[in-house]
TrEMBL record:
The keyword Protease applies. It holds the Pfam family PDZ_2. Keywords: Hydrolase, Protease, Serine protease. Residues 405-426, 447-456 have a biased composition (Basic and acidic residues). InterPro entries: ClpP/crotonase-like_dom_sf (IPR029045), CtpA/B_N (IPR055210), PDZ (IPR001478), PDZ_sf (IPR036034), Peptidase_S41A (IPR004447), Tail-specific_protease (IPR005151). Residues 405-456 are annotated as: Disordered. It comes from the Bacteria. Residues 427-439 have a biased composition (Low complexity). Belongs to the peptidase S41A family. Residues 89-157 form the PDZ domain. This is S41 family peptidase. PANTHER family: CARBOXY-TERMINAL PROCESSING PROTEASE CTPA, TAIL-SPECIFIC PROTEASE.
Length: 492
């Protein structure tokens, strides 16, 4: 493995530190600080520290003061830098394993409240109806305002089969909503696959975990065997909050020619300047094992593809979508993605704590930074409206986060304009009047899982548009090409 890549964060691409934490563990070499220390500011700090110790209404522990000072220093940088005490560092390790106890929410802290980035599919929160953009104001009887994100996460986690009540604020609702959930062991199945129609496969990646590349290969093998030769493939990255960086490289490598540039990073230090290509050393940590892409069906490199994205597609999802788009390997369909284009590294501070620090920005192969901008689809396809409201209009994006990093290419996302654009009707958004009603089951008829899946497809307009694009591509591929004039003349 590239030793410089080892110094970057393997698991660097998650949206937030929350109920799901998509960050990893790596140490960056200590570097000498440059420039003189700001003595005036340090004197002010020590004076404030002394005043608190002497005059505050109650005694304050030194450890608490120092930890809170570190927290504030990092929180003021950007939304993704934070301090990891021993408990937070333990939570981090648990979350990246792909199995943990809790509710199944990707969250962030905004205006003192916990805001839901996205609920993870097939988890208690998802099944209960918690939605992206919801604000959690109370956990059981505890007000969230005033709690740190780690404290709120700890309260939501707990032993499986124990209840927890969330009080939620939702735009468009006149009063708070209450959800009583039962905690569960969250086992995130990151790759799901099925046939949409004969010859047209569908793969959904819900989160980029350590084994997602291997799971993708197995899914593609099964689809290829079932289809006896795929005509087209939809890769669904909607509401995928990110995850493991080398997995994003592996997923991209499954569809790109070997050696293709997938992503590169730029930061202030030499360690943060890395180019990641579709090569084994960049997507597989254990090179003593057989190549995890070895059994990949050959058609994966050539089958017509559509990548689906939306405002919940972040970080690792954006890396994959951007790479496939730049190499013209796939058509990107959906709505503007989240726009997280920064890399976080874990720097040890003492034996039990660390800081999660933003150390670089990443760029797509053509040099685009998606920071606070996102991936712009080739074909805009809005989600179906509910009572005239586009759900994507209320999604949280990187540009909405306080202290977010600016786009280094000068591409700025105006939040007001973006939200207004989200509410505009799109040419491929079907009118509400055309929304097909779910047919009632006949007496004695039982609906199977296949029926439910088919029903989901009938109302998933973005997926339908993806399938339509694949069919058009298939028609174009099947159309005989006209012979060049010179060749025709020579034949005569």
């Amino acid at each position: 493995m590239n030793p410089r890549f080892q110094k970057l964060l393997w698991l660097s691409t998650g949206v937030s530190l929350g109920v799901v934490v998509s960050v990893g563990f790596t140490a960056i070499a200590q570097k000498e600080t440059t420039g003189p220390l700001p003595l005036t500011e340090l004197r002010a700090f020590t004076e404030v520290y002394g005043r608190i110790k002497q005059d505050y209404v109650e005694p304050v522990d030194d450890k608490k003061l120092i930890n809170e000072a570190i927290n504030g220093m990092l929180a003021g940088l950007d939304p993704h830098s934070s301090y990891l005490d021993a408990e937070a560092f333990k939570e981090l390790r648990v979350s990246t394993s792909g199995e943990f106890g809790g509710l199944g929410l990707e969250v962030n802290l905004e205006d003192g409240l916990v805001r839901v980035i996205t609920p993870i599919e097939d988890t208690p929160a998802f099944r209960a109806g918690v939605k992206s953009g919801d604000y959690i104001m109370k956990i059981d009887d505890t007000n969230v305002r005033g709690l740190s994100l780690n404290q709120a996460v700890t309260k939501m986690r707990g032993k499986p089969n124990t209840p927890v009540t969330l009080t939620v604020l939702r735009k468009g609702e006149g009063k708070p909503l209450t959800f009583t959930l039962t905690r569960a062991i969250i086992k995130v199945q990151s790759v799901k696959a099925r046939m949409l129609e004969p010859g047209f496969g569908y793969v959904r990646i819900t989160q980029f975990q350590e084994h997602s590349t291997e799971d993708l290969v197995k899914a593609l093998e099964n689809l290829s065997k079932e289809a006896k030769g795929l005509k087209g493939l939809v890769l669904d990255l909607r509401n995928d909050p990110g995850g493991v960086l080398n997995t994003a490289v592996g997923v991209s490598a499954a569809f790109l020619p070997e050696g293709s540039l997938v992503v590169y990073t730029e930061g202030r230090t030499p360690d943060s300047k890395v180019r990641l290509n579709a090569t084994r050393e960049n997507y597989q940590r254990d090179n003593n094992r057989a190549d995890i892409l070895k059994s990949l069906p050959k058609e994966a490199k050539t089958v017509p593809m559509v990548v689906l994205v939306n405002g919940g597609s972040a970080s690792a999802s954006e890396i994959v979508a951007g790479a496939l788009q730049d190499h013209k390997r796939a058509v990107v369909v959906g709505t503007q993605s989240f726009g997280k284009g920064s890399v976080q590294s874990i720097l040890p501070i003492g034996p039990t704590s660390a800081i999660k620090l933003t150390t670089a920005r990443y760029f797509t192969p053509s040099g685009r930074s998606i920071q606070a901008k996102g991936i712009t689809p080739d074909i805009i396809a809005e989600e179906a409206t509910v009572n005239g409201v586009n759900p994507d209009a209320y999604r949280l994006r990187e540009a909405d986060l306080e202290h977010h990093l600016e786009n280094p290419n000068g591409e700025k996302t105006d939040k007001a304009t973006q939200k207004a654009d989200d509410k505009k009707p799109d040419a491929v958004t079907p009118p509400a009047a055309l929304t097909p009603a779910k047919p009632a089951a006949k007496k004695g008829e039982k609906r199977g899982k296949g029926d439910d899946a088919a029903e989901a497809d009938r109302v998933d307009y973005q997926l339908q548009q993806a399938l339509n694009v694949l069919k058009v591509q298939q028609i174009l591929l099947a159309k005989p090409q006209a012979q060049p004039a010179a060749a025709t003349a020579s034949a005569k």
